[in-house]
Design goal:
17 strands, binds GDP-alpha-D-glucose, alpha/beta, 9-stranded mixed sheet
């Protein structure tokens, strides 16, 4: 029995170089960081789009078979330009993403997007059927592929197929706006298991089900419950995703990272460092964060010249107009705040618009006195967990939005804040930076214990048990496997 993972993007990207030659590059991002350990060295298959339009003329699967082995194989689903626009940019990122992140005013409910979404989900189902066997376990990821099981079941009626939603599931008030609300719920119910990040997401889903589907019932309680609707029976679980804690803390303690951390610290000549690391996305609340930092400098003058905000923004989905606007807004605010407060020897905001190499990212995690993770809405937010895992000296503080999925697990020890409340966030920044070092350490210790206990392997095992009554041990490590070093991560558009 093998595990077949299906996601919109593969963990590698195929890029076309000058002269038309193709290159395989590593990819990362929330989903890829999380999923690699499940397949790595276990001989499964990962099916997804390789990030290149067209490509039908080349044998991309063969090209990927030549890429450095990671103990599993890649199989590609190719998308035309029109399919990519309607399915990925359109329905996934201009309808579902804004709606599920509570920003329905950004939605473009274009009916053509919906048609392409259904067609591409069928295409993914057909590709998966081609590359899997009846007995394989199929595990599908994220909002791009909510409709895959319905098609897959037609091809393989007895299949076992599970789904995990990495983003939030909205409350009925929001979900009901979706013109295809019935279809989406019915499509999801074709899965054997639907995994959510938090209990709140699952509760929202159940409320939508009860509102829209006559006679729908939910039985059981605890981590996994069962939804019954017509002839369908789907299990619903809440499994907060984690990270590979050991790997992060080990890598963060390595000599190259420690040296870089010392350099970064020396550059700040004794000033405190606040850190933000976010994909360019309106859900991440970057402008609100900058405004709150500006407010903190205004309201607490002793902070001036004593604290620097390093804000990393990783380019993402640049083809979508809202994202380009978001970038301009961020850059205007950085300019305004720096223009107002900069003085000789101190620039308040260091703004980096690019993906960092992994050791540099880890070095920033290590030196930051506080991380500012303030999404307006987020499925989980792995940056919050990575910051804690990498904070091996246990001196940092985590300022975390109430609206990140991670808040449910970290609320006791993080400084929770409402990102819409500029003054509240400004006060929290001041409070976190002026906290007694002993209290900070105690909070960070507790955070690290939680991230360590509920790590990626806990998540994987919880999902696999609920979905297939198996855990990672049932997908044994290949005997001839030679471990590959962790590559530098290049953030993929999600
Ligand atoms: C989605 C959901 C959910 C970031 N900057 C750099 C870099 N990163 C890596 C981080 C982290 C990942 O990207 C971002 O993950 P997040 O969870 O914060 O956010 P999304 O990409 O929106 O992920 C989210 C997640 O799926 C998993 O379920 O938590 O809620 O939206 O791993 O380390 N990596 C490198 N350089 C950077 O500059 N190397």
């Amino acid at each position: 029995v093998r595990l077949v993972v299906v996601s919109n993007r593969l963990p590698v990207v195929i890029a076309r170089g000058t002269g038309g030659s193709l290159r395989v590059e590593p990819g990362a991002g929330g989903l890829v960081t999380a999923l690699r350990p499940v397949l790595r060295n276990r001989g499964g298959t990962w099916i997804g789009w390789p990030g290149i339009e067209g490509g039908g003329e080349e044998n991309l699967d063969a090209l990927l078979d030549e890429a450095p082995p990671d103990g599993y194989r890649f199989r590609t689903v190719l998308l035309t330009h029109e399919e990519k626009e309607g399915f990925y940019d359109g329905f996934s990122n201009e309808v579902i993403w804004p709606l599920f992140h509570d920003t329905s005013s950004r939605c473009n409910f274009d009916p053509r997007y919906w048609e392409t979404y259904v067609a591409v989900n069928r295409k993914f189902a057909q590709a998966t059927a081609r590359h899997s066997a009846d007995e394989d376990f199929v595990w599908v990821h994220d909002y791009h592929l909510m409709g895959m099981a319905a098609h897959y079941r037609q091809i393989r009626p007895g299949c076992r197929i599970a789904f995990f939603l990495h983003i939030p599931f909205p409350a009925p008030d929001t979900f009901l706006k979706l013109p295809w609300r019935f279809q989406i719920l019915e499509m999801l119910l074709a899965y054997d298991l639907i995994g959510f990040q938090t209990l709140r997401d699952r509760r929202n889903f159940i409320q939508c089900l009860r509102t829209l589907i006559t006679g729908a019932q939910v039985a059981g309680k605890g981590m996994v419950v069962t939804a019954l609707a017509g002839s369908r029976c789907a299990r619903l679980g809440a499994f907060p995703i984690g990270i590979d804690f050991q790997e992060f803390s080990r890598a963060a303690a390595q000599a190259d990272v420690s040296e870089e951390a010392l350099r970064l610290r020396a550059d700040e000549s004794g000033r405190q460092i606040l850190l933000g690391v976010d994909r360019l996305d309106y859900s991440k609340g970057i402008p609100q964060k900058l405004e709150a930092f500006g407010r903190a400098l205004e309201s607490f003058p002793p902070l001036r010249g004593r604290v620097t905000l390093v804000q990393v923004v990783v380019p993402s989905r640049e083809g979508i107009p809202d994202y380009a606007q978001q970038k301009s807004r961020i850059e205007r605010l950085v300019g305004e705040i720096n223009g107002r407060f900069t003085r000789s020897g101190w620039v308040p905001i260091h703004y980096l618009f690019r993906a960092l190499e992994r050791p540099t990212l880890l070095a920033y995690y290590r030196v930051a006195d506080a991380a500012l993770v303030l999404p307006l809405k987020d499925g989980m937010n792995l940056v919050a967990k990575e910051y804690c895992a990498a904070n091996v000296t246990e001196e940092g503080a985590l300022i975390l939005s109430e609206f990140a999925g991670a808040a449910a697990q970290m609320q006791g020890s993080a400084f929770l804040a409402n990102p819409f409340d500029v003054e509240g966030v400004a006060r929290t920044i001041h409070q976190a930076l002026s906290l007694d070092p002993g209290d900070r350490r105690e909070r960070m210790r507790r955070l690290r214990r939680g991230v360590k206990e509920f790590d990626i392997f806990w998540w994987l095992n919880s999902c696999l048990r609920a979905a297939f009554s198996r855990d990672l041990g049932h997908f044994p490590v290949l005997e001839d496997y030679v471990p590959q070093p962790e590559g530098d991560h290049v953030l993929l558009a999600h």
